[in-house]
Fold:
Amino acid sequence: MSLILWIEVFSAINAIVIGYTLLFLKNYFNTNKKGRKEPVSTMIVFGSGGHTTEMVRLVKNLPKTRYSPRNYVVADNDDMSKEKMSQIENNATDAKLIEIPRSRKVHQSFFTSIFTTLNAMVYCFIYNYKHQPELIICNGPGTCIPVCYSALVLSWLMPWRKNGFGHLKIIYVESLARVKSLSLTGKLLLPTASRFILQWPELYTKITGVEIKENGKLVSTHHPTTPEQTKSMTQRIIYKNDLM
Amino acid sequence: MINTTLVTVGTTKYDELLKEINKEEFFNSLVKIGCKNLIIQYGNSILPEDFPKNKFTLKNGTILNITTYKFKFDNIKEHGFKEDMIKSDLIISHAGSGTILDSLELKKKIIVVPNETLMDNHQSELADAMSKKGVIISSPLSELVNTLNNLENFEFKPFLKENNNTFVNILDDIMGFEI
Structure:
């Protein structure tokens, strides 16, 4: 009797594992297909001050028919970001504002920020589940961390959704203000990003070990201590000096 | 020609900058380059008590109009801070990346004075890198008056591109759209 039960449980688990594996394989081979027609559900993470100013410049020219709906994530009490969002969207019906609790206030201690980040994480799970973003654009405010990690976990848990494993793209643009070193958010999101864009040559060379020439002149020289693990990410890490 | 100058510290505490501009030689240098109006947004910094109210009269009788305020918010359209940026010809600012970008977007001349008292100061890195490209002037606090006196010899290079599609092209490529 119990043997039959065990066999049933075992085959159920087996079916789930095989199902997942097939989905993963399907997603893996289906990514990077060209000629897409259907719109992309997009999530744009706003931050504070300079981060938002940069983000506005990045996304104000987005083709609205291709990137729809657009959900703007804002930390609560950030009136400046709300104002900027309404400026670029002009009450477009497919654009929405999502408010999540602030994950880390300026000068907040590292220890208490663990709990506030977890709190923000709960909200992010709910919104990511609801909106199923296929594309997340972020540029460094602390809010990016719970947004991206929760979306990534959901894409692994539910690979059958349109933003399932392999179909969720995180685009990270390191802030123009980071000239020589990555921000904490940048370091934490480096492993998750499909494209990790840097705007200063020195920083790019420091992370990838690849030297950069502009107009035939070397503008940043090789850093011999680049870790092997980031070298293998060179495909995903790109340098752009004309982003803004 | 500079008609209006805006000094801004954003939301930061930068008392040293306000102390430095509360000097007759600073006002003199402004008037010398043609400035008639000076606007000061002092945010969370302390404006010196003896800072001239409404106007400053030079020894030769020329008048420099002065406006000071803590904050102005953009959503109140008539009194927006952005409006003040628009009507200014020169912006003297702390090294905030938001202010720098906004000024460049409005094609303003900008002198950035990094706050040297900040510990982890990656913002002055931005000011240095941008001034190396010749798009802004980065000036130490003590050199501000000298910088003003030499302003006319400096040519500001453009940095931002109009209708820049570089980023959209990256997105289109990764999402599988035809570019």
